[in-house]
Design brief:
about 250 residues, alpha/beta, 8 helices
Length: about 250
């Protein structure tokens, strides 16, 4: 029943808040990552989302790569974190989502104000430092969510950080399927839909499979950020079986 599932989500969010407040301040990075991974798996379980990883190699290689993926839903962060916790880059509006925004910040998410060049430069230097320190960085180069079956142009700016940090790009293709293997109608998070409304739609549905397809890594050495963005987008589009679209990268 929906009320019971909503109560479970709320209780899980409270546990997450308590964990961040009481545990993260003294826990080691490894223990924090394990906690994030476990909490993400449990949240997906409450939402009846099963993660299926395809074309996987040893996930340890992701310690030395910048992870990029297409962006469908707020679920995306937790799907990836359930396999390999990362520091995500997200638009500043996510910080205002009820509870999830604060929890994501405590888990290491970095928020960026679009169009703020000073903020972008600060973020760029922070990402390079994080990758030099061995942290995993992930972002959604579309910059916003797109309905399944669509792929927006990839913004190229943040790919420059991978070039500077001398790490490859690790693209993922992400889609959510129903029991018949079709795109799951409950997952799209586009337009004016609020986080709360999206959560309710997902909790009303059943049996969502999050298919995460690991694609060949892209070497960043000597590359231009626009070329990296275009190559990553083309790889994701092919994996999702989308018709060829405008591949131009922006910024």
């Amino acid at each position: 029943m929906l009320p019971w599932r909503l109560l479970r989500v709320m209780l899980h969010l409270v546990i997450g808040l308590a964990t961040c407040a009481l545990f993260f301040s003294w826990a080691s990075p490894v223990r924090r990552e394990r906690s994030i991974q476990r909490w993400s798996k449990q949240l997906l379980g409450i939402c009846d989302v099963r993660v299926e990883l395809k074309n996987a190699v040893a996930l340890s290689v992701l310690n030395h790569a910048m992870i990029v993926a297409n962006h469908v839903s707020w679920l995306d962060i937790f799907v990836i974190n359930s396999l390999q916790p990362c520091r995500f880059v997200a638009k500043s509006s996510v910080r205002n989502w009820p509870l999830i925004g604060w929890l994501s910040a405590q888990a290491g998410t970095v928020y960026i104000a679009r169009g703020n060049r000073a903020d972008l430069r600060r973020l760029y230097e922070d990402l390079i430092g994080s990758m030099h320190a061995g942290e995993r960085i992930a972002f959604f180069p579309e910059g916003t969510t797109a309905g399944q079956g669509n792929l927006l142009p990839f913004h190229a700016n943040l790919f420059e950080a991978a070039i500077e940090a001398k790490v490859p790009i690790q693209p993922y293709a992400l889609r959510y399927l129903d029991a018949a293997g079709a795109y799951h109608a409950a997952v799209d998070f586009v337009g004016e839909m609020s986080f709360t409304a999206s959560m309710i739609v997902i909790l009303k549905s059943r049996k969502i499979t999050a298919e995460l397809i690991m694609l060949p890594a892209i070497d960043s050495a000597g590359a231009h950020r626009r070329d990296l963005a275009s190559t990553a987008r083309e790889s994701v589009a092919q994996a999702l079986g989308l018709q060829e679209q405008d591949q131009e990268a922006t910024a």
